[in-house]
Write a structure and sequence with these properties.
The protein has 229 residues and is of the alpha/beta class. The chain has 7 helices and 10 strands. The longest helix is centred in the middle third of the chain and has 18 residues. It starts with 6 loop residues before the first strand and ends with a helix.
Length: 229
């Protein structure tokens, strides 16, 4: 490859259907979908190797690994982040953690100006973060938080739209005429994932190989069960 554009490996495992993708500069070149049964630990490494081979690239030619850090699937995120760290350590590539909700917000159509992104946090709770559009970008308007669904619903601004994978569970509990982003945009897409990653890369963001962790605001279900014993 003769292009001087940086080469990115994208790893998204926060949702049920994850993906691995390869991009140069601001162009997604190839996407591989992970099995929806969440066998990310089994599938991620061979899928990455396959994509690199199909693009005639060696692992050492990847400039940066962009990896989702959630919130989302506890196991999926752990596998994705550890895989990204291992790849970066072995190849010397930069490591950049991508907040999943930033990606989902990027996908909202122009007629949305205020947006709540929600992810199922189990036990009738959601992860929620509010975004406000500024020009052609979204900025975080609130900190990421865990709220009971009913509390959030009763106190959210009525003008705010809603997106995110949490709608799979909670969409049928929303009032009529609630402004909701189209279903195909509830989950991170490779192009918007790359857009956020490119912005971070161009701004000089680099994450530490040893300290990057998924965004966990609560223990895993197994840990919560253990604590209750």
């Amino acid at each position: 490859m003769t292009s001087m554009a940086p080469v990115f490996l994208l790893i998204e495992t926060s949702c049920r259907a994850g993906f691995v993708a390869l991009a140069t500069g601001e162009e997604v070149r190839r996407v591989g979908r992970l099995d929806e049964s969440r066998k990310h630990a089994r599938d991620l490494a061979p899928l990455t190797a396959q994509i690199l081979e199909e693009e005639n690239l060696r692992p050492g030619e990847v400039d940066a690994v962009l990896v989702s850090i959630g919130p989302g699937s506890y196991t999926g995120l752990r596998v994705g982040v550890m895989s990204a760290k291992t790849f970066a350590y072995a190849t010397g590539a930069h490591l950049i953690g991508i907040e999943t909700m930033d990606v989902i917000a990027q996908q909202a159509p122009p007629d949305f100006q205020l947006l709540d992104v929600i992810v199922d946090a189990q036990q009738d709770r959601i992860y929620v973060q509010r975004y406000r559009r500024e020009g052609d970008r979204w900025r975080q308007d609130t900190e990421l938080a865990i709220r009971y669904f009913t509390d959030w619903l009763n106190n959210r601004p009525m003008e705010a739209g809603i997106s995110g994978p949490g709608l799979e569970r909670f969409a049928n509990r929303l009032p009529n005429k609630t402004k909701v982003v189209a279903k195909e945009l509830w989950f991170p897409q490779p192009e918007s994932f790359l857009r956020v990653g490119w912005q971070n890369f161009a701004a000089g963001k680099r994450d530490d190989l040893w300290t990057l962790e998924p965004l966990y605001l609560r223990p895993s279900a197994a840990e919560e069960k253990f604590q209750q014993q």
